[in-house]
Amino acid sequence: MIIETRAYARAGLLGNPSDGFFGKTISISVRNFGASISLYESPELHIEAQPQDVSTFKSIFHLRDSVSMLGYNGGIPLIKAGIKKFGDYCENEGIRLPNRNFTVRYRSSIPRQVGMSGSSAIIVALFRALMQFYKVEIPLEILPQLVMVTETEELGITAGLQDRVIQCYEGCVYMDFDKEMIQEKGHGRYERIDPALLPNLYVAYNTNLSKVSGKVHSDVRTRYDRGEQEVMDVLNQIAGKAEQGKQALLEGRAHDLHQLMNENFDLRCKIYNVPESNKRLINAARSCGASAKFAGSGGTIIGIYHSDDMLNQLFVELKKYGARVIKPFVV
């Protein structure tokens, strides 16, 4: 029997980037793009290489473009790290795994390095497949932490909980990363929000504007660790936008998110060095009458549109900046 599992792209609706700073966020899963795992029993444990894992290139420029889009290692290190962390978890919990091996392969349609969390989606899908294969139950609130430490501890990737929470829970989720609760229990307070309450959303991405999240966050992290007051104040205000957004959605005031999302991005610009190319994409969307903010660390934006005419205008205007516009499918 072949086990098939999936995990989806994600977009930060409000509050990001405060998830790594014990803040509050709202995120959605974007089912337009996903990562899938196929896993079946075999005599030996085997990880199938995919085209992005190969080391043969047509030219030096082919290698350059491949590394720019996919990184240096492809998905194999993610799979290895995920299997190891799953084994560590089972051992720590006293779970004896049967003597069974498997072959695993992965696929992903998530655009890389534009803030849609393609790497963590592969690991989430892998954990789901391993849980099925070995009949192991990992509590849902714990799973995001396992996915995160797979990346941070095993691969040295800078990562926060937000992306992993929404990819494990799916739909639309409000997250309160209360510091004391995380330190005590290893997870925050996660509250599902009915996606039917969401306004009309668009997502636009341009892979040429991609940024590696760790590099984007490094300066603010240093200033945060120093206790710099401006950074602390702005991050608290950004977290507040998520809390206000949750209340607006639950009270049927989805239109309030338009201003909250714009304010979210404007606050971000006070402490982050946002490239002009990314600002131009934001301003182009706002010139159409839509709201606009980063959906992650750069390369992808998200906002609210008010009519089909405005959505069509977004398609036209953002295409001028090399961006593709989609309506996120949230379930």
UniProtKB/TrEMBL annotation:
Assigned keywords, A-Z: ATP-binding, Kinase, Nucleotide-binding, Transferase
Keyword rRNA-binding: no
Keyword set includes Metal-binding: no
Protein name: GHMP kinase
A GO term, aspect molecular function: kinase activity
PANTHER family: WITH PUTATIVE URIDYL PYROPHOSPHORYLASE-RELATED (PTHR38710:SF1)
Taxonomic lineage of the native organism: Bacteria, Pseudomonadati, Bacteroidota, Cytophagia, Cytophagales
One Pfam match: GHMP_kinases_C
Domain GHMP kinase C-terminal: 247-322
InterPro entries: GHMP_kinase_C_dom, GHMP_kinase_C_sf, GHMP_kinase_N_dom, Glucuronokinase-like, Ribosomal_Su5_D2-typ_SF
Domain GHMP kinase N-terminal per the UniProt entry, residue ranges: 94-171
